[in-house]
Amino acid sequence: MFRQYYSAFLDKIKYFLNIKENGIYIDCTFGNGNHSLEILKNLSRDGRLFSFDVDYESILINSKNINDTRLSIINSNFINIENYVRKIHLYRKINGIIFDLGISSWQLDSSNRGFSFSKDSPLDMRMNRNYGISAKNWINYAKKKDILYVIKKYGEERYARKITKKIILFRKKRKINSTGDLVNIIKSVVKNKLIKSCARVFQAIRIYINDELNILSKSLHYSYNVLATKGRLVVISFHSLEDRIVKNFIKSKSNLKSSLISGLPLTEKKINELCPIKMIDLGKYKSSIKDLNKNNRIRSAILRVAEKIN
Length: 310
Description:
This protein is an alpha/beta fold. It has helices at residues 13-17, 34-41, 56-62, 81-87, 105-109, 135-141, 144-155, 160-173, 179-187, 194-210, 212-226, 240-254, 268-274, 289-294, and strands at residues 24-27, 48-52, 71-74, 94-100, 227-237, 279-286, 302-308. It has a 7-stranded mixed β-sheet, with helices on both faces.
């Protein structure tokens, strides 16, 4: 039996999404189900919620006690959001979309997924274990230069070169089979701040295995496409690589790229035609002390919210 964890910004979801009772919403990362349940609390019987999750095992475990006709759970990667919304004829009718990125507490606590470095388990790291290459297969057969690139780029780990060298030496003797093997390799290099280095290396491999940054970048654009006018986009990220993508996306949609001379007698409609602003950036938020007391795993969470205006 897994613990029920408090999700980041849970008590503020109604405010950030600006939930309308009869609105239509999408939770792109069902995970533990907390955000989906919070959205449902604020919907009338005419409201609708569509929740995506690529992890079928997570859906089975975390949705088994939910029986709500307003909720549809889709076992699919959120990169398919636009195709799905078009299929159900709700294009540009979605009032709000939330992404809670990263790993759910259920996945971290699972004994056979390989996401956590705090327990010894098979080195898998795939969000969907029926698709793609596992971390074990990748780390045992990838070229040295590719391993170095992944750890350095996606983990921003200062000891990336030394850790990569140790990985190559280790696998010459035997395969790297478990998270414990990988932790011991890192431990042989890093003498101080071992936990931070483990977190960075595990993050890097997981991001690469699941193509997370590329999928996020594309999915943000697809999400914007399906939002209704005045629809809200809420994204919770957990490291700088994700947050940078989210920030730059919102900025690209909300910047007023104009060479208009101040004081020109133009109507608001004409200004929008000449230099359209597509979103309003409604700000960046960090977890409160109250939230951290409920779940310390959300300490690095950053929330950004924007509103589509045309």
